[in-house]
Design goal:
The protein starts with a helix and ends with a helix. By secondary structure, it is mainly alpha-helical. It contains 3 helices and no strands.
Length: 103
Amino acid sequence: MFTVAVRTISGLGAVTLRGFEALGDFALFSLEALGGLCRGCIRRRILIETFYRIGVLSLPVVMITGAFIGMVLAVQAYDQFRMMRMENRLGAVITITLVKELG
C-alpha cells in the first residue's frame, strides 16, 4: 500500500515538473521573441535600404528587358496582324501583353 502511494505521488510530481519545465521554456521563448522585436527596429533601416536597392535601382534593367521583349514580340506578331489588316492594334496588344506578363 505504501509503495502505491509513493508511486502516485512520484508520478504526480513528475507531471508537475514537466509542466513547470514547459512553462519555463515558453517564458524563455517569449522573452527571446520580444528581444527580437527590439533588435528588428534597429535593422529596419537596413531592410528599407535593401528594398530601395532591389526595387528602384533595378528599374533600368526592367525597362531595357521590357523594351527588347516588346521589340521581339512586335517583329514576330507584325506579319499576323498585317494579314488581318490590324497593324494599328499591334502597339496596344504588345503593351497589354507586357503588362500582364512582366507586371
